[in-house]
Amino acid sequence: MKAKPLTSEPNKRLSLPVLPSALPSPLERVFDGPMTQEMLLEPAKFGLGLVPQKSQPDATTNMVCGFCSTGCALNVHLKDGEAINLSPTTDYPVNVGMACPKGWEALAPLASPDRGTTPLLKNSKGKLAPVDWDTAMKEFTKRFKSIQQMHGDDSVAFLGTGQMPTEELAFLGSLAKFAMGMKHGDSNTRQCMATAVVAYKESFGFDAPPYTYEDFEQSDTIVLVGSNLCIAHPIMWQRILLNKNHPEIIVVDPRKTETAMAATQHFAIAPKSDLAFFYGIAHILISEGWVDMSFIEQSVEGYDEFAHHVKTFTPEHVAEISGIPVERLHYLAHKIHKGERVSFWWTMGINQSYEGVRAAQAIINLALITGNIGRPGTGANSVTGQCNAMGSRLFSNTTSLLGGHTFSNPQHRSKVAGILGIDEARIPHEASDSYDQIIEGILKGRIRGLWVLATNPLHSWINQKFCKEVLERLDFLVVQDMYTTTETALEADLYLPAAGWGEKEGTFINSERRLGLLKKVARAPGKALSDFSILKLVAHYWGCGDMFEKWEDPESVLAILGEISAGQPCDISGINSYQMLDDHGGIQWPLGKGHQPTDNQRRLFEDGRFYHENGKAKLIFADRTAMPEPPSDAFPFLLLTGRGTASQWHTQTRTGKSSVLKRLYPKDVYVEINPADAKRLAVSPQQWVTISSQRGRITARAFITPTVQVGHLFMPMHYSAVNQLTLAHFDPYSRQPSYKNCAVSLEAAAP
Ligand SMILES: Nc1nc2c(c(=O)[nH]1)N[C@H]1C(S)=C(S)[C@@H](COP(=O)(O)OP(=O)(O)OC[C@H]3O[C@@H](n4cnc5c(=O)[nH]c(N)nc54)[C@H](O)[C@@H]3O)O[C@H]1N2
Ligand SMILES: Nc1nc2c(c(=O)[nH]1)N[C@H]1C(S)=C(S)[C@@H](COP(=O)(O)OP(=O)(O)OC[C@H]3O[C@@H](n4cnc5c(=O)[nH]c(N)nc54)[C@H](O)[C@@H]3O)O[C@H]1N2
Ligand code: SF4
Ligand SMILES: [Mo]
């Protein structure tokens, strides 16, 4: 196929300085084992090698990957300005020449027959039929406005994402809330990061992951909690492998995951016993005097109360709760004491829990009482999930007002209104309802119109059947996605076709607070538009285009966000152009106006001062709470869910389109079960089994493996059926769903 020039939306970035193209051997793309002779001769037969080479590239540019929060940079090789291939960037501070299978295959999802090429509107027969943008936008405005007229402005809400560029997220949040009068808009980052956000805000005074990736290489003791880094953040794991200190790598996870197998120590704790477990470790550290009193006195508040609280968490008591023997608890505490640079990292094993915020803070507390923060190789570090979860956390105008401000703070409202040149009265005085409250709002009839962008709730939200029944109650559902076939798009009243990664520009903020650049290297198919352009259209048809006159293009929005963020911990006012991001290999926040990013590995709290008014971090703790749905006679197993392989991404709308990636994971939904349980139930490998919870009954293939404990099952979230089983229960402070525990039964025979 001949490369076509990019015409649908002009892109300034394509004229960037062009690097010499450096194509690797096509075979290096996905296979990291030794190549056999046969593979070398016939790569296609093994799903290896390139998509048939269209032509030789004539230029190369680089940009950040659009999957996970690691934020690797990829060299995109261009022919006539259009991407034909890619390879990892070698001189980018994040990935230093590496990429995981998803990164290598990032272009594949763009070309797929189910890409949306035109807006679709439900016709009188209830079928989605093509319409032009004018009709789509008129219908969008007419329907949402009439709902608002009948039921109030709050009766329309949106659900967004951590996978759109920061500029688009800010545009969505500002348009919806300041112009369209919506009060409620949340995003899939609620499913993912809400717990870390609340934990950090309460402990540090701001949502601020303190680390830089170099810390992976500088630690001597690395504690990974509820994080399967090897498959969920493979390049972060590679950074650990670059650590020359022979670090002790400690994994705390009920399953013997890929990461636990590669670690030096695995603590297979009982699910949801983290809170007690880390209080138990604190108990030992405190009673042995293994704490950093001078750091505590200078930088920490609440030590005496915390020491009192953990008194009852004796090693014996904690061993009983967590299933980890007393000696092993002592071993871990001693390791933390002996380590000079101890870093603590956590992901969904902590965040997705009904007591996640306090469990995250139990980890933060360990770093604080041992002074393991603000120095190289240390930190209480939440590993983010999606490519732009950090952008969503701070700039989406959902849980916090643009730039990590607070809706309820009058000074913050007036600052933002002043910079945007809008009437302050347009800014809501409180944060939006959370995702689950929006779902409940629909159930109760308070919310009647919903706009879903770049997320697929009918696969990914907890207790799926209920979610579907609720969404069916809507008067008008708009879904804006790259694909027409997602579970959610299929239910839309109006579908808007969106450009995806590589087809538009903007910035993502990765886990270590680094803004990286996204460029346009491919044309979106048909009439699909970037989310930015769609938002521009919505503003125009809604009649509030004037309010966003200065929001000309993503780069001008970044400048506006810079101004808004000035003086905040997440200050990005020093980033004055996209070119600057390109020149520096991305830039971590904060970077105040007039400052230069002289160091591209910066961590927070080096001066021991936190963001609370008195400059101190707070030790926050609580009592344990009971598991809402423990295993019972009828449902004797505890179901854990999470990531399956490095080649699958979430609801598979993108990774499911790559023929290469598809060869790297099982096609059918599967359930991991311990050999002892399989034997007892006479289950054989690969057999179809039935799994039931109080909410649903599904079938899956049995994957018999000792990596799960007796009495536990594990299922990857990438298969749609899994969330038919999960229980809708939430952390009370963050409202994040607790996806990783519900009671199920398993039967050997499929129905
Ligand atoms: N390949 C791939 N990579 C991804 C993604 C993807 O879909 N595919 N998604 C990205 C996103 S958005 C996210 S949020 C991250 C998620 O990254 P991770 O959080 O690393 O992935 P999960 O598999 O969801 O959960 C991690 C582990 O938590 C464990 N766990 C369950 N219950 C408990 C518990 O009670 N305590 C402890 N300590 N551990 C527990 C599980 O056994 C699991 O191994 O991955 C990102 N990277
Ligand atoms: N059981 C269980 N469920 C889980 C989890 C779990 O561990 N267990 N993890 C949860 C977590 S951490 C997360 S983050 C969520 C993820 O859940 P989702 O957000 O629902 O998953 P994705 O498949 O990433 O959905 C993103 C959607 O955006 C579309 N898209 C991609 N790029 C663009 C773009 O630029 N513009 C537009 N408009 N659309 C785009 C994709 O086609 C896709 O439909 O799942 C949650 N669900
Ligand atoms: S580790 Fe994450 S950012 Fe890096 S290539 Fe893989 S998916 Fe992309
Ligand atoms: Mo996530």
List keywords for this structure.
751 residues, alpha/beta, Dimethylsulfoxide Reductase, domain 2, globular, 26 strands, Barwin-like endoglucanases, 7-stranded mixed beta sheet, disordered N terminus, binds iron/sulfur cluster, 26 helices, 6-stranded mixed beta barrel
3D structure, described in words:
The chain is an alpha/beta fold. Among the domains are: 210-382, Dimethylsulfoxide Reductase, domain 2, CATH 3.40.228.10; 637-748, Beta Barrel (Barwin-like endoglucanases). The strands form six sheets. The protein has a seven-stranded mixed β-sheet, sandwiched between helices. The longest helix is centred in the first third of the chain and has 19 residues, at 133-151. Mean pLDDT is 93; it is low at 1-32 and 49-53. The chain is built from 26 helices and 26 strands. A hairpin with a 4-residue loop joins strand 23 and strand 24 (697-704). The structure holds ligand MGD (2 copies), iron/sulfur cluster (SF4) and molybdenum atom. One ligand MGD is lined by residues 68, 192, 225-228, 231-233, 252-255, 257, 269, 271-272, 274, 347-349, 353, 385-386, 640, 642-643, 646, 648-650, 740.
Please describe the topology of this protein.
Blueprint: H1 37-41, E1 59-64, E2 73-79, E3 82-88, H2 101-104, E4 120-122, E5 128-130, H3 133-151, E6 156-160, H4 166-179, E7 185-187, H5 194-204, H6 214-218, E8 221-225, H7 229-232, H8 234-241, E9 248-252, H9 258-262, E10 265-267, H10 274-287, H11 293-299, E11 300-301, H12 303-309, H13 315-322, H14 326-338, E12 342-346, H15 348-351, H16 356-369, E13 379-382, H17 389-395, H18 410-420, H19 435-443, E14 449-453, H20 457-460, H21 464-471, E15 476-481, E16 494-497, E17 503-509, E18 514-520, H22 531-542, H23 554-565, H24 578-584, E19 587-588, E20 617-618, E21 637-642, H25 659-662, E22 670-673, H26 675-680, E23 688-692, E24 697-704, E25 712-716, E26 742-747
Parallel strand pairs: 6-7, 6-14, 8-9, 8-12, 9-10, 11-20, 12-13, 14-15, 15-16, 21-25, 22-24
Antiparallel strand pairs: 1-2, 2-3, 4-5, 4-16, 17-18, 18-19, 21-26, 22-25, 23-24, 23-26
The chain binds ligand MGD (2 copies), iron/sulfur cluster and molybdenum atom.
